Amino acid sequence: MRVVELVVPAHDADLATDRLWAAGASAIEERDDGDRVVFRTVLAADDQVSTERLGSLPAGWNVAFVDVDDTPAETWREFAVPIEVNDELEIRPAWSDAPLRPGRTVIEIEPAGSFGLGDHPTTRLSADAVWRAVRPGDRVLDVGCGTGVLSIVAVERGASSVVAIDVAEAAREATDHNAARHGVGSRIDASCTPLAEIDGPFDLVVANILAPTLVALAPDLRRVLAPAGRLVISGILAERHDHVIEALAPLVVTRTDVVDAWAAVELVAGATDSSAG
Fold first, then answer.
1. Span 24-34, mean pLDDT?
2. What is the annotated signal peptide range for this record (predicted)?
3. What is the pLDDT of residue 35?
């Protein structure tokens, strides 16, 4: 198995962990070497895609790619548990035999070793926002679809169709696989098409990706949004995302939710700001 090895100063360990979770890690191995910390994880099947997911690294951080025995890397599956998104929605590993709670919509995900299950705060926040924002018949765009969990949530909530895009071919495959598991493959079109080549308009756009990428994609995120559409963004830190909101102007914030220092923000065109933490 090809893994990402990230080496950072010890005082940056927490920041590095957050960066890896946000980049799509499903499990992280950590080794303390005194004045530095070494992390190993899987982000994508391709080194270049993994590098893009990590984004620009701070000074003193070093990344490499190494081949390791994949047997230990799969042991995380033994400890994966269902994630309660809200009172009506749950995301769980496809192999989980945990008891089901009556009346709750369950999204079963097979991450294929390359993406998270939905346990990172940004995914939970985004899933909750999509659950709340989708209206029956909506056309939805999922930017950075990963396992396809947000696309499936959108369809389960009533979206007529979802266009799901990601830079990683492994993400397209995972999305197709998980959509088929749920019997909604015909309503989710997954591809590696760049956002710049996607035609709108979409009633709801969701982008759970890192802040630098959100800023870079801001013009196209605005372009594909319907005049009365809603945009949900996540993958951003609660205390450091003003520059992302500025890049998305004239869209305005209608709601902000925070979990464990991460935020999900909902924006629309021409609304009154009613943001709440």
1. 76
2. none
3. 87
Domain boundaries, the chain: 2-75, 121-269
Contact 41, 4 (CB under 8 A): yes
pLDDT of residue 115: 54
d(CA 174, CA 41): 18
Taking alpha carbons only, the member of 68, 86, 79, 197 closest to residue 132 is 86
Average of per-residue pLDDT values in the chain: 86
Q: Indicate the pairing of strand 89-93 with strand 105-109.
A: parallel
Query: Nearest CA to 10 among 49, 41, 33, 36?
Result: 36
**What CATH homologous superfamily does 121-269 map to?**
Vaccinia Virus protein VP39 (3.40.50.150)
Predicted local confidence at residue 118, as pLDDT: 59
- 249 contact partners, CB below 8 Å, separation of at least 6: none
Query: By three-state DSSP, how is residue 11 classified?
Result: helix
Band (275; pLDDT cuts 50, 70, 90): very low
CATH 3.30.70.120 for domain 2-75, yes or no, is yes
